[in-house]
Fold this protein.
Amino acid sequence: MHEWERWQLILRQVRARGFLRVRELLAATEASPATLRRDLAKLEGMGQIRRVHGGIQGVDATAPAQIASRSIDVRQALNADRKRLVAKAAADLCHDGESIIINAGSTTGFMAEYLRHANLQILTNSFPIAHELIATSANRIVLPGGEVYRDQGIILSPFEEDAIQSFTASKMFMSCYAITAMGIVEDDPLVARAETKLLSRAETLIVIADATKFDARGSMIVCPLGRVHTLITDASAPEPFLDQIRSEGVRVLVVGDERAASRTAA
Amino acid sequence: MHEWERWQLILRQVRARGFLRVRELLAATEASPATLRRDLAKLEGMGQIRRVHGGIQGVDATAPAQIASRSIDVRQALNADRKRLVAKAAADLCHDGESIIINAGSTTGFMAEYLRHANLQILTNSFPIAHELIATSANRIVLPGGEVYRDQGIILSPFEEDAIQSFTASKMFMSCYAITAMGIVEDDPLVARAETKLLSRAETLIVIADATKFDARGSMIVCPLGRVHTLITDASAPEPFLDQIRSEGVRVLVVGDERAASRTAA
DNA sequence: GCTAATATGATTGATATTGAGCGAATTAGG
DNA sequence: CCTAATTCGCTCAATATCAATCATATTAGC
């Protein structure tokens, strides 16, 4: 990744979230600490950011409303490192030329960073993801029709007839509200319905979920565990539950090394 | 590959993505490093691109990557003042609670600024317009499904069944490539088709066009003049042609001219 | 067919960017 | 208040990129 690209990434993120930790930026840019610090020094010299110990913040504390509202931004701040890990693993599963679906979500949102140099045909119902991919990548972007809901940055349509019925993808990536023995679960009926619709257009379903999803509950079942082809999660996921999921025929990818897992657990 | 071919390739790519690495361009142009660097030096001398170490970027230096490419930005720069005038007049026609359609275009793009405090239901096939309205206003935004074309920031779908078939609006705003005696004319068949589809969902059609549209020509007829309810243009439009348009039953609003303003008020 | 002008390709020295190591400064916890 | 851990800033070597020069190929005009 080159200087300008890193700067762009940094500025976009800091404008969206107001504050970023250096560790996060290291993970996001995949650059060495020295390089990143040089970038931060230059950006501060330009007056674009303010450096504080352990992180940076935007020069304008009261940042203007972004596309997605603060609600999704706070959710992104939670467990950002874990989510970035699984998102990167998900992005690595894609091969140039493929058609994929990316469902809106706070975890899938990180995938856009890692698809910057990919060459895919991407259907997404997330306005922020579409925006970032259009601005920073050469991927072909397809949107479903519908209304844009600011809170989650998601495009939802109450109607059945839709351009996505003419779309087909080899992989669909989605995060979720919770994973239970009953299957993949959402909290919002509209969101669940949208995901069901997208599901019908994809061959294999890949669910990406940090460990916090395993002790959550929801009301709307999107699909049973058997529909899931691959589950990507991080090392702090509860092992017994993962075994149960494996017994349903789901391939489970656990990202993050052992030391990192024990450190976060300790 | 000839020199101008390479230039065209380079400019197209950099407009679409904002940043390109020299290595990428070497692979794309299949030219020698020396030749490519000479091209880049010339393009920089013309002010078309900006060179940085390791790559090039669009001339828009510090701004975040634009959604719509430079091609539409250049068009926006042309006659920007006139376009702003007619766009403001168009926005003033909207009343809170209404449902409207805004077609993608360099002139309609200015409408978003003046709809910031409106409270409308807005269907638009322009990604940049949607983005701006979502970020700065409380209007409800609806998008048609389809692929996002970076060059014009427009969402186009080759399919007929679409969420917009369930949408209906009291007003549709569109600019165009040219206005002739044959009617409203576009240059690009895909764009013309998209506008025809949107047209069927709106009661009254309002065309906004600065005076430069009157001496242009195109190939694709979108609709006859009789379909137009109101034409908004600026004071430098050719009066004889405006009379001809009026004779077709079109209401003509001329903005930016005192005499014209008092006439429309009367 | 010849010459001049322009475009292209290769080489080399100069410059910029990057990553790793180490000591100093800052923060958190007891 | 003190210690441990993290974060920061600096220097140095390695790598990648740039700019300039010269040689070669192509094209246009006579």
Notes: Chain B is about 35% helix and 25% strand. The CA atoms of residues 26 and 33 of chain B lie 7 Å apart. Residues 22, 33-34, 37, 41, 51, 53-54 of chain B lie near DNA strand D (CB under 10 Å from a C1').
